[in-house]
Amino acid sequence: MDDGFAHITSVHSSCMPEKAFARLSDLSQLTDWNFNLKEIQMMGENLARGVLKLNGESILIRLSMDQEMRILHFHLGNSMDSLIPRIMIRVLSHSFQGESTTGCVITMIAWKVAGMDEERWRGLKAAHEYEILQIKAILESKEC
Prior knowledge:
It is a single chain. By secondary structure, the protein is of the alpha+beta class. The protein has a domain at 6-26 and 64-141: START domain (Alpha-D-Glucose-1,6-Bisphosphate, Chain A, domain 4, 2-Layer Sandwich), CATH 3.30.530.20. The protein is built from two helices and seven strands. Strands 1-7-6-5-4-3-2 form a seven-stranded antiparallel beta sheet. β2 and β3 form a beta hairpin. The chain is globular.
């Protein structure tokens, strides 16, 4: 869903929420599911530098998280001073829907930043639709 300000996409996974959150909060594994990064270099705890596939530019990624709520915020920018929280992932227990099945619902939200043209926004939304399916496949191919 896109309202012009944000895009949201979700998927159900049979993976247990705790394991899904742990996997998604590991920045060193970001390129396993992130469509736009071709490499990642850890620079510290919850801080990494990546290289964008489309143009070869370097990007900083800082992860902040709320473990109790299972929320991940990916702060992106070209420098430490320019990092802004642009992407959020939340891992929810499947039981919130009143169902007795196991697993989790993973939701990804991306916010459109000022100056982002429509072509770049369309590309970001398309990448996130692919990434959420990639996340599901990776999580379910591992021991959940």
